[in-house]
Amino acid sequence: MKTVAVVVGSVREGSLNQQLGRALAKLAAGKLAFRFLKIDDLPMYNDDLWKNPPEAVTRFKRELEAADAALLLTPEYNRSTSPLLKNAIDWGSRPYGKSSWMHKPTAIAGASPGAIGTAAGQAHVRTAASAAGALLMSQPELYFSARPGLIDADDAITDEGTRKFLQGYVDALAAHIDRLVR
Ligand code: FNR
């Protein structure tokens, strides 16, 4: 089964994006294996650290490279992405010429309580991930406008229309990966 490295730009307890990631993992079960990567122990990006790279950095790059694909889930902070996610994208993109994102089939999605469901934040992730070499899934887009109860305590989607849409998103990601990875 193809593996997807899930990188979530929020690690707070009760994160809507972590919850969306778990719901998508559930919908992908049997088709794609989701692996949630740890990014909150990555230091703030500093080129000098490459002289003696922290274990968190080498682990993150190794895990990202081992996955067939990536899924980036971003919160929207001030109409951009979170520093946590941008930092992970930047670490993965270096050293120059050794980007772990290079040619990686990658999808971008995000959840917020706002009406535009991270549309503005995702645009920034798209720019950075594309610059790092990821092969982005352009359609469908997933701007998840979260409301209480839409995802239940077992990470199941309670609204049928939303569940079908998210299932279609996961299926499109699987097809995107199949097109690019043998
Ligand atoms: C936000 N939030 C937010 N929401 C939004 O839709 N557009 C925005 O520009 C912002 N800006 C913003 C800035 C900062 C610094 C914070 C902390 C929050 C609200 C945000 O969508 C909400 O807190 C989400 O719940 C964050 O995602 P997680 O942590 O639930 O995954």
TrEMBL record:
GO terms for cellular component: cytosol. Residues 4-145 form the NADPH-dependent FMN reductase-like domain. This is Chromate reductase. It comes from Camelimonas lactis. It holds the Pfam family FMN_red. The lineage of its organism: Bacteria, Pseudomonadati, Pseudomonadota, Alphaproteobacteria, Hyphomicrobiales. GO terms for molecular function: FMN binding; oxidoreductase activity.
